[in-house]
Strictosidine synthase family protein (Streptomyces argyrophylli), 319 residues
Amino acid sequence: MDRSTALVPLHYVSLRARGPEDVVADPQGRVLTGVEDGRILRVHHPADPRRTRTEVLAETGGRPLGLELLPDGALVVCDAERGLLRVGPHDGTVRVLADAVAGERLRFCSNAVAVPDGTVYFTVSSRRHPVGRWIGDIVEHTGTGRLLRLAPGDREPEVLLEGLQFANGLALSADGSFLVIAETGSCRLTRCRLTGPRAGHAEPFAELPGMPDNLWREGSGGPLWVALASPRVPPLDLLHRTPPAVRRTAARAAVHAPYRPSGTVGVVAVDDRGRTVHRLTRRRSGFRMVTSVCAVGDHLVLGSLWESGMAVCARPAAR
């Protein structure tokens, strides 16, 4: 599916806090997100401006990014400063599940997914650049992203994949046989098989019209929603083909230069064969840098590393 349809905004939900980077919907239709000041928020009735209200679930003391809701209501949180965390479902207690691997501190945990046996898979976007200098990794194109696995009872995670280009969003296939990883720096989705003779191997899954960020699966058999943080940038594609020294110089300049996201935003939905089901785009958008998307009823809720709230948009008709 090459043609895009319009992403139709309906209203804005102010959080009075910057950077709701990931948004996930719970079974009651509430939206959970983490913001720049370290708080985890739960937004009730996000699709109804007259009834919307926000409550604080926890404070991580770091910078929460990707969230994964567990069956008991607890949250797995990828905190870019503190590592992999678990937030209690009732009292908001925060416990560190992992903050290092092989003696190296986890500096940029990005997104996580839990499987039925209690194993948690999660991504690390960069081993060179912290979250505040994320653009340096995108420009430098170092390929230091990782996929890690933390088995139940283990104190330290295991590295499954290395060399990923800014490993970001993560989702499980409907049958549990593979993971889908967003490689932001390469504008693609990658599949890592969990079962069969090729378990642990990575392979291309889908090429995208922009830079993917967080992923969110709608139910057990629904589509996989992909937030596009930016459209493709042709000069950046050319830069990625230059020698490492050139990219390093460009990265040093990029982290100090003023940054403003593109006014073109978009989301796509793909099935478990990597085929595009929906492609939604809005140009000259006032809401910029869409880093996450989830579905609540007849609406899509968008999160952003850049904005101070969430956007609620119309959901496309099922195909």
